[in-house]
Design brief:
The complex is a heterodimer of chains A (314) and B (125).
Chain A (H helix, E strand, L loop, with lengths): L8 H30 L3 E6 L11 E5 L4 E6 L6 E8 L10 E7 L7 E2 L13 E5 L2 E6 L2 E5 L2 H6 L18 E2 L14 E4 L4 E5 L2 E4 L15 E3 L2 H4 L2 E3 L2 E2 L6 E7 L10 E7 L7 E9 L4 H20 L4
Chain B lengths: L4 H31 L10 H21 L10 H18 L5 H24 L2
Helix pairs in contact in B: 1-2, 1-3, 3-4
């Protein structure tokens, strides 16, 4: 039996209009998709109503008398960051508050402390060890597995610095899995652009006296940081939304911050009195659609495809 | 309000075009994803696309039944050739870390199994 799919004249015209409409929607949808693919955004949020929600992607939130600070971690560089603050119904409005953003590694933001040289013990190097399909940071009798290659490079390590010889990892005690939001493990050495060396220990960064420990310079896995990253930041002042009175937002340019190494953006909201009750904070990291971001995406994709087909690790 | 036959036919033909586009997106996304996993799935949910396509197919088939249309399978040789080439590319790309001899064995076996299911389900009946 042959199907009769012929339309009458009136419906033929409707069909042509519908096809045109569907293809227009399809093309517009495809353009939107490619835009998101080429210039991706990254979202972070923190609900203050439910601090332990799994949906919270912001980390290390700390609230003091007049300020709130938190981190958002991403290995990518972005052009700007949209910050939106939603207040509770019974909250005072925000008046003179400002938001300051700095970019470095969480461990470099640690408070500085004295290194007790009287300990008389050597500083051990943290090694990057490849074990079958996974990587570990091993040192000081501890080993931290790394969840994926982006975290490894995001933390400032390089695959070419991995240990080539056999290392028995069973002697090391297994510690937390490192993900993109993690700080460096204990024993990490930070090397600044002004040639200062810091040891990460117990939530402090401790300046190393090179005359005491000259061999620290030759460690392979020292993490490069810039001292300027602690001093230079971007600032914005949240403005009230014209319609939604409990919503405040502002945009920060992140171009200047991209020259600093590190994956952790530290946000600090200052002049927030206790009477201001924040319900939720949303962050959107955006890339400006321009030639350099496009070429960055293409180069990154090319490298990833090459790594997939040649089997070499990123 | 009962739609007249011409309106139903119009909806049927529109659905056909949407399904064609959905399948085109499916194949393109699958190919891109097999070249670089995560490239598409980071932005597009394959589950949603599958559910969307399935709903469209069910709607099309229900409407076809209402319209009394028959679904005779007329498979041409070039259909099979395109499906086979696409299948070989997708299966080979998913086995990229295997030895080339294993890729050949697994790909041919997979294609034979797919052909067998196709034959049992469609051709023999």
């Amino acid at each position: 039996m042959k199907n009769n799919l012929k339309l009458d004249e009136k419906n033929k015209k409707n069909f042509r209009i519908s096809v045109l409409f569907i293809f227009t929607i399809f093309i517009l949808g495809s353009l939107c998709f490619f835009y998101r693919l080429l210039f991706p955004s990254e979202y972070f949020m923190q609900s203050f109503r439910n601090m332990n929600s799994l949906k919270n992607t912001v980390t290390d939130v700390s609230q003091s008398e007049n300020s709130i600070s938190f981190f958002a971690s991403t290995p990518q560089d972005f052009s700007k960051i949209d910050i939106s603050i939603n207040l509770e119904k019974k909250s005072d409005p925000i008046s003179v508050s400002q938001i300051n953003v700095k970019k470095s590694y969480k461990s470099f933001f640690y408070p500085e402390a004295e290194l007790r040289e009287s300990l008389g013990t050597d500083i051990q190097e943290n090694l990057l060890v490849a074990s079958e399909e996974s990587y570990f940071i091993a040192g000081n009798r501890q080993k931290n597995p790394i969840d994926n290659p982006l975290t490894l490079t995001g933390l400032g390590y390089a695959f070419e610095n991995r240990e080539t010889g056999e290392i028995d990892l069973s002697e090391y005690e297994k510690e937390d899995l490192l993900n993109i939001s993690s700080a460096h493990p204990e024993g990490t050495i930070l090397h600044t652009d002004k040639d200062n060396y810091y040891l990460i220990e117990n939530g402090f960064k401790k300046k190393i006296n090179l005359s005491e420990y000259p061999y620290v310079k030759d460690f392979k896995n020292n993490i490069s940081v810039q001292e300027g990253s602690l001093a230079i930041g971007e600032v914005c002042h949240p403005d009230q939304h014209p319609f939604f009175k409990r919503r405040y937002s502002c945009t920060i340019s992140a171009e200047k911050l991209s020259r600093f190494s590190g994956k952790d953006y530290r946000f600090e909201l200052s002049d927030i009195p206790k009477s201001v009750k924040i319900a939720k904070i949303d962050l959107e990291f955006k890339k400006t659609p321009n030639k350099s971001n496009l070429f960055l995406f293409l180069a990154d994709t090319k490298n990833k495809i090459r790594a997939r087909f040649t089997g070499e690790k990123l | 309000m009962e739609l007249d036959k011409n309106k139903k036919l119009l909806i049927y033909k529109i659905l056909e075009i949407i399904i064609f586009l959905a399948f085109f997106v499916w194949s393109a996304a699958l190919l891109a994803e097999s070249i670089l996993p995560g490239l598409i799935s980071a932005h597009l949910s394959f589950l949603r696309l599958a559910v969307f396509s399935l709903i469209l197919i069910v709607m099309l088939s229900a409407l076809g039944k209402i319209l009394g249309l028959s679904f005779d399978l007329k498979i041409k040789k070039w259909h099979c050739a395109i499906a086979a080439i696409f299948g070989i590319i997708i299966i080979s790309l998913s086995l990229i870390k295997f030895h080339w001899s294993e890729i050949i064995i697994i790909t041919t076996t997979s294609l034979f199994i797919i052909y067998y299911f196709f034959k049992v389900l469609f051709i023999d009946n």
